[in-house]
């Protein structure tokens, strides 16, 4: 113990010294930059081009050095908050040398001796901590595999220079610390989990080779956390080739983007850019057509769609649809183009010349071929006219472009896409909303048509794309992603949490789209108490799910005589939450409209709640009211699911929403209804299937390691 205290005290002392040194060095660099700038302002006129260029380079170099030092200072400051969280004692087989390796969020070495005092959790040696129990172990160092024996593993909770507790854990990363972490109140934003990453999660984080990695994980298995830790790992591992500017996350909505925004900065990395499918659609369709959004489609679905609309959605949500559209588009260029003579200012290009010129560009998208043909025809005729002393104007080139366009019956990608539905077997499967707006189901088929028929700029600078909520995207959306992002991808989601069963993708379908992908699965669920997980499992069963044992109050399903009594019940639950130690509360309704109405009712009673709808961009901590769709990916200490009446939750889509709402709860779940409860809660009336009552607030800790209480 004394040894541990000394190690911590020495590490903190050196960290503080290093911070001071860095501060002074940053000040000096800032001074140098300022001097250079002043010199430049004063002497700019007298400097020649070479001197100016040299000066600029010098300033840029100083700025680069300063930025680097600022970044290291940030890391040191972060380490000072908690210098390390783990230690692994490893004896190398090669020379029998044994050493304790301390692990924290960043590397830190003694500036004098260069001895590593803390290893970054992403460093090769740190994988020992996550991947092995006591006994034989190995890790991949740059020079090759290092083999040896783990003689001990220890976990710490260090705050500043105080050792709050530590555990010796011979086996996996101790349940004790994990239990403590999971029992805590939800943070305002998603937090990092470096201290308790589990082995199966580490495998996902440290996979360096997959071009595409598909991660299927049950609700609460840490998919999103793990994907963000994976980004941090890749940025560390490939720091020379990859920067945060090259990584992007495709997230379901802006609220979710805000919720996860802290994880990478907490891990010492810059935030990565975020995008959603709506922004992609907007980028390509803004000047083409108005379109229904995903959220509008969800609202429509929850209100109930007719059979024809369901058929249109399902048809466009299959891999076969992509193949069909692809084939049809590929043959348009040859089958629908009719070469004709071009004539301008009494000069002609024969039909054969046109046909040959068009054939020469085979392989390019059809509208690019037409543009190329028009350009070469105009250039040729222009030359002939000018050679004879004539004049050529922009109007002549335009006229040629028109003549060429007239050889292809489709004006643009939209009319081409509409023509796809003129085939008798597809009649009625395209139905615009009014005259100018297309349904959501047509949005990505149209974007795909645009990409396949004309040159479109993609996202070339992105080298790694994270795709969250993979089950909510259709094969044609993946086809669009493949065209726009020719980079590595981490694709994650849960087939059990689809928002729209009519147009979602199952794991096998996604696997077929990326046949070379590495597929990994996370089955342990960490978020909720065993009682809540068991309850949610009765709503929608997933046999693969393994709950992490942690106990709390059984979920309550509360009946109310009428609407007024129902709202009073919610008021009482909100009050109860206020009196508790829990911080965050999510009131999760089926739809945004229901959330809005209840928000108004509760506001009239003086309850202050943050209302999140599709326009919201920020995740507010504390008490929130929203819909299940928007709550996807979020979590709360306490969840209240109002109006779980059978009329409200009756369809498969409703069931999905109920499951999402229940699985957002970490510690407490309450459901309220008027009239008969939803059919999906019928199990609550069968005594045998109810989760066993547990003592509130007790956490079942399986005692794997020896506990050394400190302080
Ligand atoms: N190894 C771990 N140590 C501590 N906490 C963990 C660990 N793994 C996951 N968690 C916690 O479990 C919760 C769920 O994580 P996350 O939101 O990443 O899961 P998810 O699989 O994306 O969930 P969902 O699909 O249900 O939205 C978070 O509170 C996260 O901090």
Summarize the structure in words.
Keywords: ATP-binding, Helicase, Hydrolase, Nucleotide-binding. This is AAA family ATPase. InterPro entries: DNA_helicase_UvrD/REP, P-loop_NTPase, UvrD-like_ATP-bd, UvrD-like_helicase_C. Strands 1, 2, 3, 4, 5, 6, 7 and 26 form an eight-stranded mixed sheet that branches. The protein has a six-stranded parallel sheet with strand order 10-9-15-16-8-17, with helices on both faces. Strands 20-25-24-21-23-22 form a six-stranded parallel sheet, with helices on both faces. The model is unreliable at about 690-710 (pLDDT under 50). It has about 700 residues and is of the alpha/beta class. The protein has 24 helices and 26 strands. It is globular. Helix 5 crosses helix 6. A hairpin with a 2-residue loop joins strand 5 (about 135-140) and strand 6. It binds adenosine-5'-triphosphate (ATP).
Main β-sheet description = 8 strands, mixed
Oligomeric state of this protein = single chain
The gross shape turns out to be globular
Number of strands: 26
Q: What keyword list fits this structure?
A:
43% helix, eight-stranded mixed sheet, 18% strand, binds adenosine-5'-triphosphate, six-stranded parallel sheet, 711 residues, alpha/beta
How would the blueprint of this fold be written?
Elements: H1 2-43, H2 49-81, E1 86-92, E2 98-104, E3 108-109, E4 116-120, H3 127-131, E5 135-141, E6 144-159, E7 162-168, H4 175-183, H5 199-205, E8 212-217, H6 223-237, E9 247-250, H7 254-259, H8 263-266, E10 273-275, H9 277-285, E11 290-291, H10 294-303, H11 307-315, H12 319-335, E12 342-344, E13 347-349, H13 351-360, H14 366-387, H15 394-405, H16 413-420, E14 437-438, H17 440-453, E15 464-467, H18 475-484, E16 488-493, H19 507-513, E17 518-522, E18 524-525, H20 530-539, E19 546-547, E20 556-560, H21 563-579, E21 585-589, H22 592-604, E22 610-611, E23 623-627, H23 628-631, E24 636-641, H24 652-662, E25 665-674, E26 706-708
Parallel strand pairs: 2-4, 8-16, 8-17, 9-10, 9-15, 11-14, 15-16, 18-19, 20-25, 21-23, 21-24, 22-23, 24-25
Antiparallel strand pairs: 1-2, 1-6, 3-4, 5-6, 6-7, 7-26, 12-13
Helix pairs in contact: 1-2, 5-6, 12-17, 14-15, 16-17, 17-18, 20-24
This protein binds adenosine-5'-triphosphate.
